[in-house]
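Entry 14. Structure prediction run on the chain below.
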Amino acid sequence: MSSPQPSPPQETPRSRWLAQRQQLLEDGAALHVLLKKANGAGEHLLVIEIGEAALAGGKIADRVPILQQMGRALAVLGSSNEARILLGEIKTGRADDAETLGLLARVGKDLAAAAATPAERLVFLREAQQYYESGYRHAMAASDRGGAAYCGVNAAALAVLIDDVDLAHELALSTLEQAAGDDGYYGVATRAEASMILGKNADAEVLYQAAATLAAAENRWADLASTRTQCRELSLKLHGRRDHVDAAFPCGAVAVISAESLKADQTELEPELSADVERRVSEWAATHSVRSVFSGARPGWDLTVLEKLQDSGVETHLILPCTVERFVELVLMPKGAGWAERFESVRAKSVSVTILHEISTADPADGVEFTERMIAARGALLANHLGFALRALLISEQLSNTSARLWTQANLALHVIHPENPALDGAPDKDAKAEPVPFARALKPASAKPKVAVCAILLLNFPKYSAMSDDDFTRFQTDVLGIIATKLALSECPPINRQGFGGNYLLVFDQLFPAAAMALSLIEALRLQNDNAVFQPSICLHAGPVWQMINPILNLYAHEGAAITRAAALAGGLPAGVVYATETFTALSALESLRGVRFEHAGISVVDGYGDRLFRVHST
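Output returned:
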């Protein structure tokens, strides 16, 4: 019997964008199709990246479809105010089409979900329902059946939530007519939702199952997550339980992988052992319905497992500690050119490749812990967005050679594969003695380098400091530095280090939440105390590996590193009075499940030739 042939690489929105960037920037219709596909796949930051490039290029005659898709992406990311502003750029003559009105309604739904009181929630739901219904009426007048079905079913669903049952039934009946004969994903999902609203529960369950099957075949997990979320809202309202038709939706998981790299004297894996581990990984992935995987790409088990999962149709996402060129030179080539070739093949088939340090010249081995934190954080973000379980796979004979300790602290569901001891496979023994060093492979015994740790960074910059008068300095000491010192002294989770001079102050934390809470507390306290703009700081939250060392000039314990200098550079260009966080800090927040903090997309800040995507930080 011939062995099964590997499935061909699947084109992803990102791979198409990278391969056809110039052509797409000159073809508005093709670009619009790509943006819709990216939104459907959950690649919302990619939508914003592409949209920004298209609008800046000035070669797209009709900007409206681009703005619509960017607005949708921002709404999904929770940046409701920015989505409203963006959608407001659409000319008045085009602001009555179903898609724009539907997106404005979507923003209203997001605001309702974040409302502080039931009364406020009801106001936003009614506003959103009116937008959807207006979009439905306009689409009907324009004989736009797709737009009528989309806006109609959402208007009906929100009518249920605001207790207007008669209107809900009227709109649902009309929606069934408009979506009749549409066997695509949206058509089937629309009929499922309309059937549930009308009380046709058996029909609804069958149609939801059909929609889920289409979503799985077309990789539309983000679209399916949206459908499932609204289905559960309707189920709670109509049947008193959210899980009324949960069985119609496929379960799934996002996996994160931490595997032991090749040993110092090793250049290849033993073929029979490799085949056996690949089989065990495939069985584990199938058992848990793994749809997407986040991993590093070191030679050895990383690349071997990624190849196997790609052949099985699993989406892969790579997290690299440095640029591709440095990674190939320093990590792959020392083990042989064959590993570099395998890496390029895996990279080409991956849905995304995240480079953590575009400008760092540090040894990639020094960033092992940070890389694996980001692997887990990126996985957690996607799992949360899709409503999937998050599972962690460790491949090693010794847990100290993986991120077991870190991921255990994050309460991830762990499964260990011991390559040479299959009998030990399974969940790690919780009673086993903890390894004294969580990332032993990153430490070099013969090295005199300072210790590296992943930390949260809070950088305060006072942009008006250089313009202060003598009187200002006196007030600065009491009304600014005094307030900051008091907040730090009273904090239950104070920074592990603090440094500062002039108009820049650095606070280093060992966790993200205390850093975010302190930033929000400081910005509010300084705003209330001082009405003078001179005393308002810009604040940047960042995270990354930093060096712990003794400063020989000051003879004090200090933290240094590229992550800190980058935070300082960014803070210097930010407006005062607002807290901003980098994409790295925002992503890592998913791993710590921060409560009481909301991130809103704010755009890209370019400093020293490199751009960082930033998010405004709000207290909830």
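The radius of gyration is 26 Å.
Filed with the rest of this week's runs.
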